[in-house]
Design goal:
The chain is an alpha+beta fold and 125 residues long. It has one domain (25-123). It is built from two helices and eight strands. It has helices spanning 2-21, 61-65, and strands at 27-31, 34-38, 46-48, 70-71, 81-85, 91-95, 98-99, 121-123. The strands form three sheets. Strands 4, 5, 6 and 7 form a four-stranded antiparallel sheet that branches. The chain is globular and about 35 Å long.
């Protein structure tokens, strides 16, 4: 009986780890801009019109103001979620191919102050 319980506990732990490793990097949240994608801390995610599918064009000063939603080597893309390799060798998350960013002027969960900035930044929906 004890080996069976150990095997079952191992299977549960492995399943939980697999679910966590493949969990979407963002969730939907209701904001003043409607339902938008937010990161694990509830910070609004944005897309940049100067990006193309699978390619980030936000670096240096741009990335300081619009930090990328970073991915780790353990993260696994699935479905509409992909991982974009940045020119500096790091990786970031994308939704439907479009790289995702937060905005440094968003101070709390659900802020959407980056919507429409420069006519090129938009909340991710």
């Amino acid at each position: 009986m004890k080996p069976l319980l150990v095997a079952m506990a191992s299977l549960v732990a492995l399943t939980a780890f697999s679910a966590a490793a493949s969990a979407a990097p963002a969730k939907m949240m209701k904001t003043s801009a409607g339902e938008v994608l937010v990161d694990a801390k509830g910070m609004t995610l944005y897309t940049f019109d100067k990006d193309t599918k699978g390619v980030s064009n936000c670096y240096d000063k741009c990335a300081a103001a619009w930090p990328p939603l970073m991915a780790t080597s353990a993260d696994k893309a699935e479905g509409d979620w992909t991982i974009v390799k940045r020119k500096d060798g790091t990786a970031m998350w994308a939704y439907e191919g479009m790289p995702l960013y937060t905005f440094v002027k968003d101070m709390k969960s659900g802020d959407v102050t980056g919507e429409g900035v420069g006519g090129v930044w938009h909340v991710a929906k």
